[in-house]
């Protein structure tokens, strides 16, 4: 007589508890992702950085993921070995990369000198070491992201999948909010021995958070083992579901996969790199006090905290995923166009636009990530998410550097004034950066995203992926 077993994921407390644990781990990573963003003016003053230096450091996020295919290898490992080993490895990698960034800011590595002198890769020694650390961190946090996505599918398939993904993203972005609002006042309030800003203090806090996130994921591994025991699974990856290398080709020839991937890179290139520069934008265009400038872009994640789960729940129950992604793309274009208009420069408008962008940032991800399992089989999900994140990393790598180049290119008077001041001319007044061209570049990502979203909507109608259908099984 066959015994009927009940999966642990049928317990609301168990599956939502598992979600809370892995979401906390991602939150600690998201803090590190943006921790230096509000510190751009302080780094320029303390270390003599320009906007290209700042862009180089932030572009390093995607170096290893893009050029050494670390994300794709991470996805294959995830599908072949499972979430427990992959998640713990990713959390440890985040810590190692952050430790190197801390060393670069604190001066524990050589600060003087130049790497790759005379080439297009030329960069200051401090930038090299910090960027290397951020690149290592980028591998860890991106692999952690695909791991957590697969964890959520594992616990919520056929249930509140989009809501769960929305709540995970909302929790993780609490780390983003802290990273945008906290570092500048922390650095200026917590003074070093020479009464200078303690620029490494926010990174030190991040190291502590990452240790807590690692411990949290260790806790999750025990929950994962209990889930498999409740379903009668002996090993994390069953033989029939084991990923095969040949499955990569199956993913790559799927047009729906490429449309999701392109929408992802365009949308996130219009938001994540913007947040790197948003505090500086508030100071230079809207005249906000640097002590509080980070708090304005820090409002963006709070909108997503509330709205992403709501939009995810709508998708779960009502469907319309492709339509939601299209609306979000239109809103992205509108937000950046208004940011680009030079004479609209009151800080109240900036606050309103950030909140509007927060709604935008809730719409697209709430529908995009739960749509992937409708296009790609579950056994290929880890690698599919990795490939999507790999495409996304091209944008996360290139856009910060492009914006940094544009700022220096179209603001030569700022560079000239800083050079004069560094040479000893104390009478020079450093003008503000003009952000018009950079914001038009961001607006272009919204326009292209609209085109891709329309193509995805047409492909869904043609292939019947079910993107407009509810996620929850009746």
Task: Tag the structure with descriptive keywords.
two-stranded antiparallel ribbon; globular; Growth Hormone, Chain: A; 474 residues; mainly alpha; 20 helices
Give a written overview of the molecule.
It is a single chain. This protein is mostly helical and 474 residues long. It has one domain: MFS general substrate transporter like domains (Growth Hormone, Chain: A, Up-down Bundle). The chain has 20 helices and 2 strands. The chain has helices at 12-34, 40-47, 51-59, 63-67, 70-81, 83-106, 125-156, 161-181, 183-189, 201-230, 247-252, 255-269, 272-284, 290-293, 299-318, 321-340, 347-375, 381-409, 412-422, 436-463, and strands at residues 114-115, 123-124. The protein has a two-stranded antiparallel ribbon. Strand 1 and strand 2 form a beta hairpin. Helix 12 (255-269) packs antiparallel against helix 20. The chain is globular. The two termini are 29 Å apart. 54% of the residues are buried. The mean pLDDT is 90.
């Amino acid at each position: 007589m066959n015994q009927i077993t009940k999966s642990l994921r049928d317990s609301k407390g168990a599956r939502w508890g598992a979600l809370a644990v892995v979401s906390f781990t991602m939150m600690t990573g998201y803090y590190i992702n943006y921790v230096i963003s509000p510190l751009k003016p302080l780094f320029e003053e303390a270390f003599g950085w320009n906007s290209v230096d700042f862009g180089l450091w932030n572009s390093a996020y995607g170096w290893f993921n893009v050029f050494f295919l670390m994300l794709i290898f991470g996805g294959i490992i995830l599908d072949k070995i499972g979430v427990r080993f992959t998640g713990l490895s990713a959390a440890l990698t985040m810590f190692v990369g952050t430790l190197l960034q801390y060393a670069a800011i604190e001066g524990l590595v050589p600060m003087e000198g130049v790497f790759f002198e005379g080439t297009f890769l030329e960069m200051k020694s401090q930038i090299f070491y910090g960027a290397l650390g951020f690149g290592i961190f980028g591998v860890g946090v991106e692999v952690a992201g695909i791991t957590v996505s697969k964890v959520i599918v594992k616990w919520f398939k056929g249930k509140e999948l989009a809501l769960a993904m929305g709540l995970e993203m909302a929790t993780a972005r609490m780390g983003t909010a802290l990273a945008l609002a906290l570092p500048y006042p922390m650095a200026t309030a917590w003074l070093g021995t020479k009464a200078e800003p303690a620029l490494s203090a926010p990174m030190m806090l991040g190291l502590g958070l990452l240790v807590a996130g690692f411990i949290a994921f260790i806790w999750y591994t025990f929950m994962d083992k209990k889930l498999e025991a409740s379903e009668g699974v002996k090993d994390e990856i069953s033989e029939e579901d084991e990923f095969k290398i040949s499955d990569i080709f199956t993913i790559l020839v799927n047009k729906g996969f490429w449309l999701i991937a392109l929408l992802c890179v365009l949308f996130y290139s219009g938001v994540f790199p913007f947040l790197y520069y948003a505090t500086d934008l508030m100071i230079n265009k809207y005249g906000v006090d640097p002590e509080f400038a980070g708090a304005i872009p820090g409002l963006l994640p709070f909108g997503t905290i509330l709205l992403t789960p709501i939009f995810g729940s709508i998708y779960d129950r009502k469907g319309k995923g492709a339509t939601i992604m299209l609306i979000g793309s239109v809103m992205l274009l509108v937000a950046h166009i208004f940011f680009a208009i030079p004479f609209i420069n009151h800080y109240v408008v900036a606050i309103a636009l950030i909140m509007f962008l927060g709604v935008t940032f809730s719409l697209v991800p709430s529908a995009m990530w739960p749509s992937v399992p409708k296009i790609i089989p579950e056994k290929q999900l880890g690698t599919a998410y990795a490939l999507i994140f790999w495409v996304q990393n091209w944008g996360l790598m290139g856009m910060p550097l492009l914006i940094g180049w544009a700022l220096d290119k179209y603001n030569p008077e700022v560079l000239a004034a800083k050079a004069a001041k560094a040479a000893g001319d104390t009478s020079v007044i450093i003008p503000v950066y003009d952000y018009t061209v950079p914001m038009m570049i961001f607006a272009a990502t919204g326009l292209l995203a609209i085109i891709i979203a329309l193509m995805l909507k047409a492909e869904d109608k043609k292939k019947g992926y079910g993107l407009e259908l509810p996620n929850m099984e009746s």
